[in-house]
Amino acid sequence: MAHNLGGKIDEIRTQGSALVDLAGRTFEIRQSFLDDIAGASLDDALPNLGAALLVLHAPRDQIVGIDNASRLFAAAKHPKSYVSLDDADHLLTREEDADYAAEVIAAWAKRYLTLVEEPATEAAPEGVVRVSEAEAAGFRQDVTIGGRHQLVADEPASVGGTDLGPSPYQLLAAALGACTTMTLRMYARRKGFGLDHLSCDVTHGRSHRADGEGCERKGSQVDVFRRVIRVRGSLSPDDRARLLDIADKCPVHRTLHAGAVVETEIVAQ
Asked: Does the model's pTM come out above 0.85?
């Protein structure tokens, strides 16, 4: 894997991370990833996998050659299967290739999994975000947004959850990050900035409010969302300074900063 990172390895080691182009897409690769692949030995792990293995490979893949797929398949014990993806590319960027791979994986996995039918979640009306308990014993929630989008919210195992989805505060951080990058992209597009790529890391914590910051609540704790916005492209210092200003104008930032009114009622079902 490491040889596909080109000349970025030194940058990753010195800076902690770097943006790397792989198969036509940009990924942020961190030092922890280099540590993981350096400490992994598939030749040792695969014979003791203790599970069925499915290897999918495209013969025309220019990123990972057929010899890699052959070594993986040969090292593993049965049950194991191999599927050729014909003329697909490495990242299955064509929708029909991705659909085919998904159907093959689903059909193959049924032989080895005991699947329990979950009750269907009622779709939320347009404009409504509906959150329903998926299990009363834990914290997992099914989230439906309108009639099109579904996701899961949960809590880490350390606090009694099953960690099958992001926590509520992680979802809130994601909303802030997504709104930030969307707002910056719209502004950069309108102004003609040479912004090739941007990302936003968001972390959440709590800090004690300093004296003078809201005198009525001195000493209380305040939620702190920290954003680290990463940009790549032909941007001048003035361009970057302007983007920093615009980040504070994204709608979710304004909502969090100004506060909001939450109106609640309870109805019996």
From this structure: no
